[in-house]
Design goal:
174 residues; 3-stranded antiparallel sheet; 6 helices; binds zinc ion
Length: 174
């Protein structure tokens, strides 16, 4: 019986692997919380599109607009969503997109206490929190507001004529 068991176990593993391969991809993703690999396409010279953006947002349980704001902030360029896709101005390699997405998940999805991805964003007394449905922990997270403010200010300051103000006044004789 015992050596039979070993053989059966081996057979079982093979069957399990086979069954797993035959499962629809989405089922595997959901149970293990695997973020779909972004389908990144650079369109012309001016934009980068994530084709499966909605699918990613659905897995993360976050509004597509919130993720779009994060991309805008991190890449310092406008990123807008159609609800289905994410359109980012400029050319951005897939590796960069993946990195930004991972950082988003780390900051806005994963619970830092127990590591669960089953969290939600809630605002309490004006502060945005990531609340964990698994362990109940509440962690404050950064708001994504006033994204372009700093850029506008720095552009104004760097204008060449800003330095040309004459400080000394010529005394008038009249
Ligand atoms: Zn937790």
């Amino acid at each position: 019986m015992e050596h039979d068991f070993g053989r059966t176990l081996e057979g079982y593993k093979v069957l399990l692997e086979k069954a797993r391969k035959e499962l629809p991809k989405k089922v595997v993703h959901r149970s293990r919380f695997v973020i779909p690999v972004p389908e990144v396409e650079i369109v012309g010279r001016k934009k980068t599109v994530i084709r499966n953006f909605k699918e990613i947002a659905d897995v993360l349980h976050r509004p597509p607009q919130h993720i779009a704001k994060y991309f805008t902030k991190v890449l310092a360029t406008p990123a807008t969503t159609t609800g289905k896709e994410l359109i980012i101005r400029g050319q951005h390699p897939k590796s960069r997109i993946v990195q930004v997405l991972k950082n988003y998940v780390q900051e806005y999805v994963i619970c830092p206490i127990c590591g669960s991805p089953d969290t939600e964003l809630v605002t309490i007394s004006g502060i945005l929190y990531k609340r964990c449905k698994a362990c109940g922990a509440r962690t404050p997270v950064r708001e994504l507001r006033a994204i372009f403010q700093h850029q506008c200010i720095s552009i104004d300051v760097s204008l060449p004529y800003a330095r040309r103000r004459i400080s000394s006044r010529t005394p008038s004789t009249t």
